[in-house]
Amino acid sequence: MTSPNDPSELDTPSEPAEASRPTDGEAFFDYHTGPVTLRGSRVPSSTTDQRLLDNQGSAEWLHADPWRVMRIQSEFVEGFGALAELGPAVSVFGSARTRPGSAYYALAEEVGRRLVEAGYAVITGGGPGAMEAANKGAAAAGGASVGLGIELPFEQGLNDHVNLGVNFRYFFARKTMFVKYAEGFIVLPGGFGTLDELFEAVTLVQTQKVTSFPIVLMGTDYWAGLLDWLKGSALDHGTISEKDLRLLQVTDDLDEAVHTIVSSDRRLAAEQRTAEEQAAVRQKAADEQAASSSG
């Protein structure tokens, strides 16, 4: 088995854009844009996100944006509707380039299995690599294996181990689902997409937009360089604090990773019960005072 410290399993691109198109330029793969599947000459040359963010061309986009707003709204409605009854879940992130048979692929698969055994659904980006492995482990353990796909120029579709899938056009709608329906994140070695999700989650916790949201990084060797930079550059320059660094937990121990999620979940549940009990006591006292005054 490949060592988890071997970068070769992460950094070799699969080149889906070139490999999945025939020589005459006509696409033959499935292209998903929201709930719609396109093939052949119907595959567009740009994604919905690209057209939204493009500030070039005529001013006709002014007349199209109201429709985009409705489409964006529909993505939130579809996501909320699909995931509202999911139950406790954990979002798992990692590289789409992680190869089957590698140590990190095996780790991701075990993460998915262990989370289901601990009572959680597993949410991933639905793609290949580490995402596929986590979905595979979750599905094999008999749990909810969720994939939140995204429209990309090199469409890869949802992996075969997803048993609840939702496709999105817009990244920001998809990102909301990763956080809203998760009790925490487990982050495996990955690239820009993984880092994007990681730092967005850290920012939400730092700014108290979400509370009691554990973020566990798996793979101490892989994340060491990033953490050294945060401590040696960002912290030294005062752009983050020691408290911010404590928002990230790094481990190679899967038991510790799952325990971090479970203990945080239990602590939050206890805090909510205490808050509800205190609110009930205050309400009872107010009712008794009102009854006494009226009497």
Present the secondary structure layout.
Blueprint: H1 8-11, H2 16-19, E1 27-33, E2 36-40, H3 48-53, H4 61-83, E3 89-93, H5 103-117, E4 121-124, H6 130-140, E5 145-150, E6 164-168, H7 171-180, E7 185-187, H8 192-206, E8 215-218, H9 220-234, H10 242-245, E9 248-251, H11 254-294
Parallel strand pairs: 3-4, 3-7, 4-5, 5-6, 7-8, 8-9
Antiparallel strand pairs: 1-2
Helix pairs in contact: 4-7, 5-6
Task: Note down, in words, how this protein is organized.
With 295 residues, this protein is an alpha/beta fold. The chain has a domain at 78-272: Rossmann fold. Helix content is 50%, strand content 15%. The protein contains eleven helices and nine strands. The chain has helices spanning 8-11, 16-19, 48-53, 61-83, 103-117, 130-140, 171-180, 192-206, 220-234, 242-245, 254-294, and strands at residues 27-33, 36-40, 89-93, 121-124, 145-150, 164-168, 185-187, 215-218, 248-251. It has a seven-stranded parallel sheet, sandwiched between helices. A two-stranded antiparallel ribbon has the order 1-2. The chain is globular. Mean pLDDT is 85; it is low at 1-23.
List keywords for this structure.
7-stranded parallel sheet, Rossmann fold, disordered N terminus, globular, 50% helix, 295 residues, alpha/beta
